[in-house]
Design a protein that fits this description.
about 300 residues; mainly alpha; 15 helices; about 75% helix; globular
Length: about 300
């Protein structure tokens, strides 16, 4: 029987942190904007459910990507033979159900958003839809789940998201970021993705073109953030949002330089490439920085 450590590895714990931070920061933003009561239990359930749902999505993706991973990531539990498909499916079923049960105790809006996100993860990984096979569909669905809906769901755990455009505008900022930034994970997987019929941007257009194509996503979101503050759409502290926008613009320009100065390093180094690490930390700082701006009065 697989050990708990093996299930933990299968869940890919490193990837569980960003959605937790995204939900928590979204709840802080919702609290700062609406001044609704901050219910710690509700927020805690939403944050925990984000990690559990992401673990379920990771598990399903590894099941559906078994052919790819035999080439790209043979050390993972399934291609290495350390875990059976039956155990993997059981893990996925339990975690999907657990995540939805957790948010059912929060409120209807949060549950609805999580349910949509859960269905979207299935559409991303599993046949017959398997949007992962399509370069545009793949990026759109990840940007929706881990960008737009993440922030909206965090807000919904504290206050309604149906009374204002603000949570949706905030979600659009992170949607635009991940629309391009999510491709950074695809460069190192070209060989396996091509063999399995997953036509990502790097598979179809090559490393150099793809690096140029995703570059605007490291600039445009922070322009949207600044514009939202100046237009009054974002109610957080104007000076703090402006400072965050400028810092992220400079950071994004540096990441663009790293990617385009030698795009083929993205293929050979993959998750070890500095641009990938910067993308990850930009997302975290963007989440927490905007939350801080909403707590400053």
């Amino acid at each position: 029987m697989p050990s708990l450590r093996l299930y933990w590895t299968f869940a890919r714990p490193f990837t569980l942190v960003p959605p937790m931070v995204g939900i928590f920061s979204g709840s802080l933003i919702g609290y700062g904007a609406s001044h609704a009561p901050f219910r710690v239990l509700h927020v805690g359930l939403a944050v925990g459910a984000a990690a559990v749902l992401n673990a379920a999505s990771n598990g399903l993706n590894q099941i559906c990507d078994l052919e790819n991973d035999r080439i790209n990531k043979p050390h993972r539990p399934l291609p290495s033979g350390k875990m059976t498909l039956g155990r993997a499916w059981a893990f996925v079923a339990v975690t999907y159900a657990a995540a939805l049960v957790m948010v059912a105790a929060v409120n209807r809006e949060t549950f609805a958003i999580y349910a949509i996100a859960a269905l979207a993860t299935v559409a991303y990984s599993a046949p017959p839809v398997r949007l992962k096979r399509h370069p545009v569909g793949s990026n759109l669905i990840i940007a929706l789940i881990r960008g737009a809906l993440l922030k909206v769901a965090g807000w919904a755990a504290v206050s309604t998201v149906l009374a204002s455009v603000e949570p949706w505008y905030i979600g659009s900022i992170y949607f635009v970021f991940l629309l391009g930034a999510t491709t950074t994970k695809d460069f190192a997987d070209i060989e396996g993705d091509r063999a399995a019929g997953c036509i990502t941007l790097p598979v179809r257009f090559g490393a150099a073109w793809s690096a140029r194509a995703i570059s605007p996503s490291f600039i445009a979101p922070w322009l949207l953030m600044a514009l939202g503050s100046y237009a009054g759409t974002l109610s957080g502290n104007h000076a703090a949002i402006s400072a965050l926008s400028v810092a992220m613009l400079v950071w994004g320009a540096y990441v663009i330089y790293l990617m385009n100065s030698d795009p083929y390093r993205l293929v050979t180094e993959g998750e070890n490439h500095p641009a990938w690490h910067h993308m990850y930390w930009m997302m975290m700082v963007g989440h927490l920085g905007l939350a801080a701006a909403y707590l400053i009065h």
